[in-house]
Amino acid sequence: MQVFSQSSNKPHAYRFSETDNKLPFNPVEYAISTDGVNWVSCFDVPDLKNVYMYDAVLPDLTPAETYQVIGQQDGQTLMASRYDQRDIVTQFYAFGEDENDQSLGYQALERFLYARDEYWITFANHAGLKFKVKAKTFKPTYPNDKDFYVTVTFNNSAGVGQTLGTTQQINDFDSPIWALGQGIEMAGSVPQYTFNTDSFTVMNFGDIMIEPDIKQHPLVITIHANGRPSLINQTTGQTFTCNRQVSTGDELKLAGVNPFINGQQCGIDTNHGIISLQRGDNQFTLTGCTEATVSFDTPFYYV
Prior knowledge:
The longest helix has 15 residues, at 99-113. This protein is mainly β and 303 residues long. The chain is 5% helix and 40% strand. Strands 1, 2, 3, 6, 7, 8, 9, 10 and 19 form a 9-stranded antiparallel β-sheet that branches. The radius of gyration is 24 Å and the shape is elongated. Residues 66-139 form the Siphovirus-type tail component RIFT-related domain.
C-alpha cells in the first residue's frame, strides 16, 4: 500500500546554499483517502505547492461513561464506558506570490480537505495510524497580502486511531503502514495471524479490546476445515460454532457479527457466537474439525 508521496524531492526546510527555498520548517506530510486503501498525499497535489502543514496535534481522549443508581447502593454503578469524538487541530502556513495567489492557495486547501462525507487522514508525525475525520472549521489569518496561516480542525468521530494496515499485512512490517511505537513485538519472528493447528495465540497489540459486537470493529475470521468447526477464545470465554458440515473447499467466515459460508449468510447454522480480542495474548482452541486453517484480519486501535 502506498500512502505517502514517492517523490525524491519532498518539500523541506531551507538548507545551506538553497537560495530558491525559503521554507523555514520541515512540513508535516499528510494524506487522505475515502476508503483507507487508496491515498493521495498533499505533496502530490500541484495546487498545494507552497501550502504546508507545520503541526498536527492529537488531543487527549474524551472518555464517556454511563452510570446508574441501583437500589439502595451508595453512589452509582458504571454501566458502560466508551471514547467520545474529539477534535484534531492542525496548523498550516502558505507562501504566495501576490494576493491572487494567496486566495488560490487557500481555496486549494479547502477543496482538498472539505468533503460532505467522512474520510481517512494520516499524518507523517503520527506514523502508521489513520483517523476517520471530517473537516470542521477553517480559521485563517493573513500576516500580509501574500501569505496566510490557517488552523484546520478535524472532527475524529471514532475518538481513536487505527493502524493503516491489518494483521494480514503484518508480514510487510518494513512498509510505511507500520511504525515504531505501536507496541508490535517481533521477538525474532513476525507475529502470526494464520494458523493450521488446533491451539494457538492471537496477539492484539493495540490499546483497545477489539469488539465486533459492541464497538462494531471489523474483525474478520476465516476458516477452511473438514467438519463442524468450533472456535474458542479461552481468554475471553467466547465460542463460535458452525453446526453445518463444511469441507476445506468451503469458506466459513465470521465478518464482525455476521457468519457466512461461501458468501451466503448462515447464522441459522451457528450458535450466533461472537469472537473478540482482548488486549495482549488471546489463547484459542479449534475443535470439531480436521485439516483446518484459520486466519484473523483486523486493524489495531490506539488512543
